[in-house]
Amino acid sequence: MTPLAERIARQIASQGPITVADYMAQVLTDPRHGYYMTGDPFGQRGDFVTAPEISQMFGELIGLWCVDTWQRMGAPDRVLLVELGPGRGTLMADALRAARVVPGFSAAAELHLVEVSPGLRARQREALRDYRAAWHDGVAGLPDGSLLLVANEFFDALPVRQFERIGRGWCERMVVLDDAGELAFGLSPPSPAAAVLLPEALQTAPPGSLAEVSPAALGIATELGRRVGEQGGAALIIDYGRAESEVGASLQAVRRHAAHAVLAEPGSADLTAHVDFAALARAAGEAGAQAQGPVAQGAFLRRLGLAARAKALLRDATPTQARDIAAAERRLADADQMGSLFKALALAHPALGPLAGFA
Question: Model-level pTM?
Answer without folding.
Answer: 0.94
